[in-house]
Amino acid sequence: MGKKNLTIGEISEILNITPSTLRFWEKENLFHVSKKSNHYRTYTNTDLIDIADILYYRNLGVPVKDIRAFSSLELSEYDQFLENQERELNKKIEEYQQMLLRSQSLKRNYYRLLRLLVNPFILETPDFHHVISWDFREKERIRQYVSDPSYYVWCKDTNSEISGRKGLIVSENSSYSRSDLIWENRPGSRYISFPVKAMIENDYSGLEAPKIVAEVQRHTTTGYLITRHLLNCKINGENVEYLQAYLEITGAWDDSFTKRLMLD
Question: Do 115 and 40 belong together in one domain?
Answer without folding.
Answer: no
